[in-house]
Design goal:
This protein has a single domain, classed as Porin (Beta Barrel), CATH 2.40.160. It is elongated and about 90 Å long. By secondary structure, the chain is mostly beta strands. It is built from one helix and twelve strands, in the order αββββββββββββ.
Amino acid sequence: MKLKLLASVAAAGLFAAGAASAEPDGWYGAVDAGYHIIDDINTESTTNGSNWNWEVNDGWAAFARLGYRFNPNWRVELEGGYRSGDIGTVRAVSGPQGLCNITPATGPCYSPEGDITSTTLMANVIYDFGYSAWGIRPFVGLGVGLNRVNTDTVGRLRQDPAVTFAADDSSTKFAAQAIAGLAWAVSDRANIDLTYRYLTGDAEFATFTNAASNSFGEMAGDYDQSHTVTLGLRYAFGAEPAAPPPPPPAQRRRRSA
């Protein structure tokens, strides 16, 4: 009997602790920073139809979010993000320009100096699994919005030293992302979010050369297979739920006559 009583008291205490640490609904803000990886960006020249693969080195990413939690499971947020991307090796993979790094005639591939960066503005819908009393909660989400890809580079693409190549252009295209992660509640208002984002979209940029015979015009391709892992701090600004009103005082029983 005593064991049952102690178990009941302990369960009530755990429930009260979980309820006390529950995150309030309403507005929240968050910042995230982490690591970004993207597969080679394949582009096609609008002038001669040649295809070029642009290797983008691994880099860093940062995000800022403003969101609103409707209940313990559903929330929406507006997210601004930045993904770095230094240019690695650039390869011609098809077209009249020939393949680099294949034969002595075509010569090696080169790495023009510059970067291909991404700035996004996304609207996300997030679903949190479980209950507010859980210390760690998984979540998934989807986002849609705009991706501004900026390409800034200058250098050689082939072994011919007389031909230089440059690009300084950007494009803003529709983009979508898938989100998954874990949230760790460190207080009744703060969460540490471990988040994975997969971003996909399109990109294009104008190019310039000093030789008309080597003009590429505009290059268009996909900015996809972008993988980002971040660690962030999320803080809730919502008001604490109002305490229930006290029960009415018990009415005195009328004395019988």
